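Here is one record:
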Amino acid sequence: MLFDESTLRKLNQLTLAASRIRAGGLQGDRRSTRRGSSVEFADYRNYAPGDDLRRLDWNIYARLERPFIKLFEEEEDLSVTILLDGSRSMDWPEPGSQDGLHKFTYARRLAAGLGAVALASGDPLSVLFLQGGRVAAEYGPSRGQAALSRLFGFLDGLRPDGLTDLNAALRQALVKPRRAGLVVLISDLLSPEGCESGLREWMGRSHEATLVHVLAPDELNPPLAGDLQLVDMETGYEQDVSLDGGLRSLYRERAQAWVQATRADCRKRGIRYLDLLTNLPWDQALLLEMRRAGIVK
C-alpha cells in the first residue's frame, strides 16, 4: 500500500484540473463547458469494467444481452495519462540517506495519489513507465475505484534503471493512438535534451500538459567539499573536481537558474509546472502544493 486510508479519503474529495474538459466517451464526475443538460441523453457506449452500473441501460441489456452505458450531454469524463520517469537518475538518494525521501519512491506516491484522484472521479486513467527512451510498462486505461488495487500493484512493481531520454520516450508513447486529455509528466528532468520537444508533440495532439519536477535537496545544494571524483550514475562517466565554497555557490546559482528557466518556459507554453523537493512530505505535496499549483482542486 503506497499510502494509508486516511490520505485516500482526502484524495477522494479532489478532482484533477483541466482548463477545457475534453469530449469524453463516458460520464464522469465533472461538468463540460458544452451546452446541454445532465439529464439530456446523448448516446450509448460499450460497458467497461469499473463503469458506474447506475448508468447501465437494463432495457438494452435485456434485448441484446450486451451491456451499454448511457451517455449524457453535459457531464463528461477526462482522459488522464500519467508519465512516470523510471531512469536510473531517479534512484537517489542512496539507502540510508536522511536528506529527503528516495526520488522514485516519492514520484510513485505522487503518481498513485493523482491516479487515485482520477479513478475516484470516474476518469479513464493510464500510467506509462518511461525508461531507456521508450514506454517500458503501461497500466490502463482503467476507470473506477475498483481499479485502485491494480494501480498500486503496478506501481509497486516498478524499478528505476537505464538512461534518460525523455523526448524519445514521449514520442514513442504517442505511436499508440491516445484520446486527448490531461497528461502529467513526473520526472527529475535530468535528461540531456530535456523534455520540451516531447511534450510539444503531446500538446500538438490537443493534450493539456502538467510537469511535476521532483528533485532531492542535495541535487540543488550538495553537501560536498574537497577533491572529489564525480560519477554519472547513468553513463558511468567520471569527472575529477576540486569543490570549494566558490564553486559550490556557483553550482547552487546555476541549479536554481535551471529550475526558474524551466518554470518560465512552462508558463510561456501553457504547461502547468510544480517543482518539489523530496524533503517535503509527499502527502502535503498532493493535498496542498498541487492545489496551489492548480493541478487538483
Notes: Residues 25-76 form one domain. The first strand starts at residue 41 and ends at 46. Residues 23-28, 31-37 have pLDDT under 50 and may be disordered.
